[in-house]
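Quick one:
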Amino acid sequence: MIQRIQTVYLLFVGLLAGLLPIWAGLWTNGNGEEVFAVNELPVSIMFYGSAVLALMAIFLFKNRKNQFVVNRLNMILNLFLLGFFVYRSLNLSGENIISEKGIGMLIPVFSIVFLTLSNRAIKKDEDLVKSVDRLR
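Output:
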């Protein structure tokens, strides 16, 4: 059943992680140039990996337990990405020239929120199926 609410959440995570890093700058370096995710190879790999995991989880709707596990892996990937951004932002603050943090650093936070909402909805579906099986 692709029309469930967790599909909307997972699609939103896929769009956040797949498309938004192209337009949203991560930070501005000392020269005033805005750095995007496509300029940083490990960051872009993690963003696209998160998008692929979210889209893969959409098509695991028949096996809710695997969908739940894939979402957890996606959360861990986004936590690593968020940790990298925190580390990077702490290193940016020591420059002579003021550098700015971009809105793109918040993408993993929003992804984690929507993945958590998706896992909650998956858990509700799993509990509903278990309660219906009990009545048979």
